[in-house]
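Last lecture ended with a question: if I hand you only a sequence, what can you say about the shape of the protein? Today we answer it with a concrete record. The protein is Carbohydrate kinase PfkB domain-containing protein. Below, first the input exactly as provided, then the predicted structure, then a couple of comments.
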Amino acid sequence: MDTNKTILCVGLVCIDLKTIVQTYPLEDSGQRTLDTIKERGGNASNTATVLSSIGCNVEFLGTVADCENINFLRSDCSEYGINIENCAVCPKTKCPLSVVIINTENGSRTILHSNKSLRELKCEDFMKLDLKKYKWIHFEGRPNRDEIYLMMNHVRKYNNSVDDEDKIVISLEIEKIRPVLLDDLIELADYTFLSKDYARYLDYDDMTSCVKGMSDEKGKTIFCAWGEQGAAAKNPDGPIVTSKAFKPPQVKDTTGAGDTFIAGCIYSLCRNLSLGNCIEIGCRLAGAKCGIMGLKDIHSVKKIILNKIDNFKLDYKTY
Ligand SMILES: Nc1ncnc2c1ncn2[C@@H]1O[C@H](COP(=O)(O)OP(=O)(O)O)[C@@H](O)[C@H]1O
Ligand SMILES: *[C@@H]1O[C@H](CO)[C@@H](O)[C@H](O)[C@H]1NC(C)=O
Ligand SMILES: *[C@@H]1O[C@H](CO)[C@@H](O)[C@H](O)[C@H]1NC(C)=O
Ligand SMILES: *[C@@H]1O[C@H](CO)[C@@H](O)[C@H](O)[C@H]1NC(C)=O
Ligand SMILES: *[C@@H]1O[C@H](CO)[C@@H](O)[C@H](O)[C@H]1NC(C)=O
Ligand SMILES: *[C@@H]1O[C@H](CO)[C@@H](O)[C@H](O)[C@H]1NC(C)=O
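The predicted structure:
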């Protein structure tokens, strides 16, 4: 795979207003907070941030409201080197915003999300892309399921029409329990990342039975991250692999840990690491993320991750 080609992340970008508190607030009380910071958030946008911070060429595609926050989003993406030129700018609406309460006692994050009217991305928006630029497209499974289905099919058709070196790999994230069933999108993706909540919704009690059951059922590679327990993955024709979580010295902020895990896995998959090594890199990166506030310092762990990947490669050679 041409490592210089672009990874495209398709999904939501929003504003996160993170309020950092010493202890979780009581209702109808007043208290001082340690800090409040404004960040770019949204799951696909977070994954794009991490991929770009560890050295990938990245583009983000989603809808963006033409409100006062658009300038903040533009300059923030430009700071991280994330291309947003193909985003659909929507007039007369407000940017979705999440108020996130970060409890410094254990880094827990409570998310209060608001979105009044920003529309979801349509396949029509996606059709404007020149697919030749991309080696990988990551989709955030959102309520626009039918549109995502069309986008994925469009990529699959493209895949069938080009030479091997130009083919595009598809990954999918299913985070929330959504009223629409996202399940059948899994069949169109090469790799699917299921959240703990979604696994439970499918009646799985743990990450290993989830990846086993779902990869058997769909014949696809499935990943499942499970907070402090780490993560599991399975190829349809391989064994279940697991990784422990890597605890930072102090858990400061777990927002975006799942998105960071996904970025670590995509990065490693692009480098042809074994599935077990991929989830270990994902967990190491996500663990490091939990030890820092926000994502802005995630580039500081890039070197550690790259060294680890080199070690894995040396290990392969000794076999
Ligand atoms: N407290 C923690 N300490 C270390 N690593 C963590 C912690 N919480 C999450 N992680 C890492 O992040 C990954 C994703 O965690 P998860 O809870 O599924 O994320 P999210 O809540 O963002 O969906 C886990 O596989 C784990 O490697
Ligand atoms: C993004 O991921 C988090 C977990 O990491 C999840 O709780 C949240 O619902 C997701 N956000 C959206 C808008 O889907
Ligand atoms: C963090 O601590 C609070 C109590 O202070 C608890 O309710 C919550 O479950 C903890 N969260 C995590 C992720 O450990
Ligand atoms: C925002 O809300 C609208 C109206 O409820 C909904 O249709 C849409 O899916 C949401 N969009 C985003 C980007 O979350
Ligand atoms: C696209 O092609 C690549 C390379 O042959 C293959 O690995 C992948 O499964 C294809 N992806 C889709 C979604 O068709
Ligand atoms: C990964 O494997 C593919 C297919 O075998 C190959 O084309 C590509 O160069 C490899 N990439 C890396 C970074 O090793």
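Comments.
1. The longest helix spans residues 145-161.
2. Residues 155-156, 159, 164, 167-170, 190 surround 2-acetamido-2-deoxy-beta-D-glucopyranose (ligand 5) (CB under 6 Å).
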